[in-house]
Amino acid sequence: MPSFDIVSELNTVDVKHAVDNANRELSTRFDFRGVEASFEFKDESVVMSAEGDFQLQQLQEMLRTSCSKRNVDTRAMNVHPKQHTGKTHKQVIDFKQGIDQELAKRMVKLIKDKKLKVQTSIQGDQLRVTGKKRDDLQGVMAMLKAEDLPQPIQFTNFRD
Q: 3-8+98-159: what fold?
């Protein structure tokens, strides 16, 4: 029986390279001359620090641009609230990996509403879709690609 998995994974190497590129761009920007601002990648999250709130917004835009250049989907970015300590402002951005229960249930409902002859099961942080025909599975893939989901998804482990 043909099947495939729906997952949400992120290449952390590309994220690290995007952070490095943003740091390089930061060193060449005129509006950040003489300002203590930086990006730091640790524990699969990015810590941005700057002297002002407006500069944090600029850093976030630089990171988004650099991520999109590295083909990292920016919908996976989870921006935490800003923290202000002394003269520095910090903000943590982590990246969503895996499909949470709420999104998984929403995707199962979307698939069932299409009335395709497939079965969907939630397996931890991924979904398994099985069906009798390959065309039905490809229809599910096309339908999910067309949907506006809050997180990027990939299709893996296609078995025929």
A: Alpha-Beta Plaits (3.30.70)
